[in-house]
Task: structure prediction
Amino acid sequence: MKTAVFLAVLVLILCEGVGTAAQKLMKIQSFGFSAPIGFAVLLTILELGYFPAQLAELPFMWNAVVTGLVLFLALGLTIWQFKEVFRKLFRWRTLVVIAYTAFFVLTLVKRMGGTDIAIIQDTESIRFQGYYSFTAVFNYFITKLNPVLNANALYLTYFEEALYYALTAMLVVNIVFSFHLRNKWLALCIAVFLLFSGNFTTTFASSGELFRIFFVTLTVFTMYSYLKEGNEQIKYLILFTISAGMVCSKPFIFLAVEMLYVFVVYLFSIRKIRSLFDTLTFVIPLVFYAFLYLCPKYPFLAWAILIFYGWYLTYRYRKKPRRFIARSEEFCFDHAIKIFFIIVPVVLTVLSVILRLVLPEGTVSYLDYFKAYPVTDTVADQLFLHSDLLGILVTALRWAGVVAVIALSKTKEDRFIRTLMILMLVVFLNPLTVIALSQGMTGSLYYRGFEILFNPMTLMLILAYIYKFLEWQTFWQWVLEFFLLFDAWMMIYPIIF
Result:
């Protein structure tokens, strides 16, 4: 265990260095931990090195060499930014990260004991998911450093656990402190609630799937920060958060489409100049992954898409295409509400009815919308389907917060979250549109859209609005704070005992 946790700490420090260097090069001011965005950048670079092995089925040592070279680059960037990395890591906020990570790692030790578990150790099992290649390399080195382990998968799980929960704690701390709450006790209560009840602790991080929630949260937080700070460079970090999410999880691909849809529609609604131009940049990770998935079966089509897209990215800077994009952008500015809030949901609803009538056996039914949530899933409690009394109260609090954000949001960044909530409910989580979406994009996992609607970033804003509503009611403020801590404790208690 010590070897695995030690390697996780090293990777975490390298992530902090990569994130700090990336923000410095992009001229983005950082006030919190940079490791979350650094991990996204690291995974993106690694996937660029892994994909030749994924396409050509190269030997495992290719991935080992690529990983070594990328980590060596990360080490160089960390040394370059050593003073800033030291300043960020050696402060009291880091104690939260250490305590949270230690809690889950020690709990894992207590629960698993010496039990071995199955993991994926090569690139063939999960194709084009570079996260598994990354962890397979570390599993290889863990066993080389300590041959007695004999490739026991439990020790790789220690590595994943330590890395995941440390990054999660850093992200939550960044989110809470970005709101600059004057009530520090409230900030602590919210942080504890988000860490233990924010969909992060449903299961152990023994696969890349749990990172899906992490990168959904990081992507929404990055979009929110871009609108709040007004720094145009921040929006390019979205490329890394989306790429990294797809490296870890296949369902993240359609979640990325949904998040980009919401983000671009909001940019149209506020008449943001270059919105359509930037959209063509934001889809780079999606085009790249389309190329990877099409290449084995349809190589000609895959290369045609990649070459055409690459050509258009450069051609769009010329006068005629820029003029065409500008005119198209003006059209979207004028008609965004009608097209994306009304026409798109209506079309999907009609298409769902047609599909249900034509393919009654090959589509989900409307009632399946209320049956598809597994009890153990991260979104199991969002519609009161598997809730006990406490779960019902927490879910009611979340939905009350949604109403509050939609009704009361005033700032540009808060209105983005309002748009996110409305579009997710009207387009992607609408039981009337779900048949068309499940057939064309999401499959049976359409309900994972709730991870966009309710994640630590949106929950933070929801709680901030609820607390603001109770601003002059001290008793109910205390009730809210107690409730947040009590719910977190009810999540902690079964883990410990």
